[in-house]
Amino acid sequence: MALDVVQRSKALDIVEKSRDHLDAVKINWPLILGAGPRIITEISGLCPVICDFKIADIPNTNRLIVEQAMGLGASAVIAHGFTGSDSLKACVDASRGRVFVVTEMSHPGGKEFTQPNAERIAAMAKEQGAMGIVAPATRPERIAKMREIVGDLKIISPGVGAQGGKASDALRYGADYIIVGRSIYESSDPRKAAESIAREISDSLGSRK
Ligand code: O7M
To answer: What b/e readout covers 166-195, taking b as 16+ CB neighbours within 10 angstroms?
Structure first.
């Protein structure tokens, strides 16, 4: 789940209600800025945390960011790839390989700069020893293309629900996990929303057999 709320109490309440149906909680800048970095530690006591800082700097700065995130309890981090292989390598080294690399972004503007470079970035993620990549559920055919490139790396896929993508399509085209934000945290019943997406996923995996 992408937990893009800004209040500590609301964040913890949503995680407590929905965590039985989640593999991990992805934390982005809105929650860090709203609740403070210790929220990483608090939530990591309930569910694995992926710090989505879309790290995009020189190698030394990347290393410092990753060390802070992992030190606070993150299980993995998310980095951009466009800064190049040395910057990504710094993230891989500092997290012991627990990095997901953004390839093509899910929003319409993702076609402008990220799409033309996505395949090279995916290949670099594989070469540098990342754990996986991020690829768009809004364009599931692109997930299939990325799968050809990254082989057995994990693919996590945002853009389900509020951005128009479907969980079952993303999985059918090769994603391992989907990232869902607003469809869960803006729901009047986050637990039920997470449960119904988890059911869609298990049904679609069942129909793959
Ligand atoms: O389900 P939503 O649309 O409310 O939230 C989607 C989340 O995924 C939100 O936290 C975004 O920052 C993130 N995301 C995208 O929506 N598109 C991308 O291309 C990449 C990400 C992402 O998670 O990158 C790591």
So the answer is: bbbbbbbbbbbbbbbbebbbebeebbebbe
